[in-house]
């Protein structure tokens, strides 16, 4: 076997693997555009005519609850918690990278260790607290919890991004008489901005995906999109196209954010340990 | 690394006049850190302490007046109750299977993607996609669209070759949950291992090749040792996330058919059975399990981290 044949052969295997992994998503997309009758055939109907009925059904024009409140709640929860995370993580990362506090590595590892505390460790007391203070089914409580879920990731990522800024550059700006706000805005921000954006996208994804807190702490008013999706757990007759449309619509923001952050995704997921 | 930042705390304490300002400056350095630190302690550590306290009480939310201190009774019950013990076992099995299988698949895919071929970027994107489907949506996709015995894609494909038409979820419930999780987590492992592969020393590999080493020898003696810590990192981070899995179990089997893992059991025992004390004891056990994994995870992360700090 010549080297060229083998190289092409392995390329082909890689393509095949990519297609196999993507197939369920492609099938989901195709089914979402089929009518319910065509979606539920065996063997599957590949060439059935396309329709937007599944999407119409999902958005509630065909009766049933509208997903809009849930989508809006999810947007509020993930955008607000991401902003709050950045607000808390940026100064913290500054104190852990540029102007370091003593024992900064210990502090960094404290943040990491909280990420390893499972959600169920504090779920019941949080639920009881919410029930007694009337915060149950309130989206802002979810914002706080999603913030706590993402803050360690953000601190770690941001710390590693800010550490990449050469101290000499900051010193030089100081020597030239620049004050702290100027240094932050003119020197640090431009270098750190891509990293901050990637961090924000990853926090957004985790918050948008989160189910356990949302399921326990929200019910009617503050229900998020994943909680709305749990309504599809039990079969409701012919509803495949609708389920596919729903799953795809709810996943779209995550797919968009994930592909936008692709290069930094691994760094975020490994809490900054891998670059 | 240049540690030129002035640490005012080290100023000699003898100069009493300078001390207040030194202390002030130390606090000024610390100040940006405090909001995040206090927030984390309040939202994650305090509730866990409360869980710990509740775990020593016999407390059913439906009978709040009968609440009383029972010591370790809840733990005894959790560890002797057949269902609960089974959920401990399910958690271990689910986590180990998903982590190992997705790690091996992720390694194969990372090796495939590490070489140049036409459309590599597209294939990478296709492979990452499963990780970017909302977990509940992914579980719904597997449950209804792939596994459904009557019109699911799996049986549809089997139909073409005249194969059997099994009811996947009721025949192999745990495997059904595991397969969907492997599909979602393989891309995660692949990304971490790909980063590991790309940080290899290419000169060393070239030198080995010049010396006549074949592909397998290079993989076995250079690549694999280099990847070891990335494999560990993937396994440990994967374990931390999958031990906590709730979405797939909740969606695909609703914890039935022997697939209830500890997080699901904790959820179920206080949210549906209102057994606050028992749920807390089970929660504490999940934490103990996580601490064991986390101790190793922290060690791996810190060794990679120190290397990073030393390099910069």
Automatic annotation (TrEMBL), chain A:
It comes from the Bacteria. Residues 71-261 form the ABC transmembrane type-1 domain. Pfam families: BPD_transp_1. The chain crosses the membrane at residues 12-30, 76-96, 108-127, 139-162, 183-207, 213-232, 239-261. Keywords: Cell membrane, Membrane, Transmembrane, Transmembrane helix, Transport. It is found in: Cell membrane. It is a multi-pass membrane protein. Belongs to the binding-protein-dependent transport system permease family. This is Carbohydrate ABC transporter permease. It comes from Streptomyces thermocoprophilus.
TrEMBL record, chain B:
The keyword NAD does not apply. The keyword Transmembrane helix applies. Residues 88-297 form the ABC transmembrane type-1 domain. It is a multi-pass membrane protein. Keywords: Cell membrane, Membrane, Transmembrane, Transmembrane helix, Transport. It is found in: Cell membrane. CDD domains: TM_PBP2 (cd06261). Pfam families: BPD_transp_1. InterPro entries: MetI-like (IPR000515), MetI-like_sf (IPR035906). It comes from the Bacteria. SUPFAM superfamilies: MetI-like (SSF161098). Its main location: membrane. The chain crosses the membrane at residues 33-57, 88-113, 125-145, 174-197, 230-257, 277-301. Belongs to the binding-protein-dependent transport system permease family. PANTHER family: BLR7065 PROTEIN, INTEGRAL MEMBRANE SUGAR TRANSPORT PROTEIN. This is Carbohydrate ABC transporter permease. It comes from Streptomyces thermocoprophilus. The lineage of its organism: Bacteria, Bacillati, Actinomycetota, Actinomycetes, Kitasatosporales.
